[in-house]
Protein: Heat-inducible transcription repressor HrcA
Amino acid sequence: MTEQTKLLTELNDRSREVFRRVVESYLETGDPVGSRSLTRTMSEKLSAATIRNVMQDLEYLGLLGSPHVSAGRIPTQTGLRMFVDGLMEISEPAASDRAAIEATVGGDPDVGTLLDRVGSALSGITHGASLVLTPKHEAPIRHIEFVSLGADRALVVLVFADGQVENRVFTPPMGQTPSSMREAANFLNAMAEGRTLSELREHIARQIVLRRQELDRLAADLVEAGLAQWENKGESYERLIVRGRANLLGDELDLERVRSLFDDLERKRDIAEFLDLAETGDGVRIFIGSENKLFSLSGSSLVVSPYMNADRKIIGAVGVIGPTRLNYGRIVPIVDYTAQLVGRMLSGRGKG
Structure:
């Protein structure tokens, strides 16, 4: 039992109802809630003074806060967490929301285009920013080439057997030369064909031990660094699709904080942490404020759910990010439904 859930069980019915109505009103309007407005909505007839006393008790418990001296109350991060864990009512997504998500899977676009459409639809119906972590491409490799873009940037071009081409930017080890890059590419191509990236990485790890003397030190470093970018947690190529940034600008997240959030996203070398967040629990997970360790922006919430392939293996995730004043009861089932739909769709294609 979490601390918040334990706290909830200790509240009497009156305190629980006052707390729930404050949170629901705040999530709907974004405004502090006063005792006088609650007298019109409570199930039992109470005076404003009685409700004010209950709200003071809830504030003492750390569940409500006062943004201004004379204002009403708003839920704290602890209060929002307690509401989400113990009081929030979740229903099925509305038919119109389901239809908007399902409309993205028509036709037969490639997986990247399809997931981009899903992200745009998810952003549109939730009025937040959507995040989609796409699956790794696991078709066999046909050809690999390295291209220097400068002293600290290089491009790896991957041509897959199914015709797909991917260009990924990474930071090469210091001192690389065009000849060492060609040597590394030749080394990889000699054993890449017919293997997926995962299989190639395992094979290369064994081969580097056996054949390190055949490569000069710089080329070996490039092989190791390149593979670390492709398959390890440090991969820096764009597997994270972000849509709907502008939706956050008109809310209580100001421009600088939104810019900070997306600077974080673009800087993140470890975007796989997004998937880690989803993998540590079943179904939808909700991160409120500073619980959201993926971003430095503490005034945001992240609702995220993993999706699986036909083998029930987690291969990606979808999520919505917005201010802490999200309509969680509506957004949670939408994210859950989207993740399940994406999983079924990719399983049907035999991807993942």
